Amino acid sequence: MKNIDLEQKIRESLLQLLGRVPVVHDLEYILDESESGADFTIDVVTDHQTFRLVVGVRNNGQPRYARETVALLKMQSSGPPDNIYPVFAAPFISKAAAEICLEAGAGCIDLVGNCRLAFNGIYIEQQGRPNRFVSKRSLRSLYETRSSRVLRALLFDPALRWKLTDLSEAAGVSIGQVYNVKKALIDREWALVDKDGLSLTQPAQILRDWGNHYTLDKNTLFGFHTTESPADVENSLARAFSKLGLRYALTSFSASVRLASNGQYSHVYAYGDGDVQRAADLAKLEASNSTPNVTLMLPHDEGVFFGMKQMEGAIVVSPIQAYLDLVGLEAEGAEAAENLFSQVIEKEWPPA
Question: Going edge to edge, which strands form the sheet with 286-287?
């Protein structure tokens, strides 16, 4: 269904931009009611010739829509090819979608001010303006609780082909939730679907983008201080959680040192499922809000335990979860996160 208001705003933005170019003598707007894929055209008259911009307006600016729209505009536009310039337009165009347009020899423009137009000696570019059309929750929706369970299953082995029912069962979420994640990934061209099922095409990009939206603060954090070594504390915690019959897993530096031999560290991090305060008491940890060197986390979702395993006498989270928790520490965990990614995660994934 056409969005007339969106189309009008895009048209006005284009006419204003082009109207400021000194070599442009005249602009003629033409509503396109054909089946060409264009919503309207603008004839740009310069000293040398007339160029026709064929503009496709879509409600979604993700890569899949950019690729499909530009291909349709180029295939169905009439007139001399050298005088036709396809333009993809949307409320907000992602960086990846803008690159697709550039590679295809097309322009792009959105309503927050991002654009790239390059034809007949005219070059206009504005990039980096943030998306103001979606809420922060919408931006992070792919990484929210239930969606993130689907991602963990997919990232465990990106080459696996999943049927939606199998993925739903593995992630412990509904078919509808899996479908929503599938659509979001395909729109971004991070996944594909063939006769064998759904698989990831850009796992590294997904994980890094997830890291950009990840925060530890969703969990309930408990800070403690101890004079014992990290290894001794971790052994004490393992005994305490085992005695209480509670699930636990080391994470962040405490996991990466076992997964990737990340060297020295002084702060212990672990998830505990249940009464973490009682486990801390059994491990003889003292509460500290000012200078903690042990952080126990009551997880906001049990998905953090997906893929956990036993290593060197302790239970640790998956490499994916350890990476996210290191990234969540920002500068403090950045180096260890990159080392874990390059030494473990990339090597476990099949070649692209």
Answer: 286-287, 220-225, 294-298, 268-273, 247-251, 314-316, 309-311
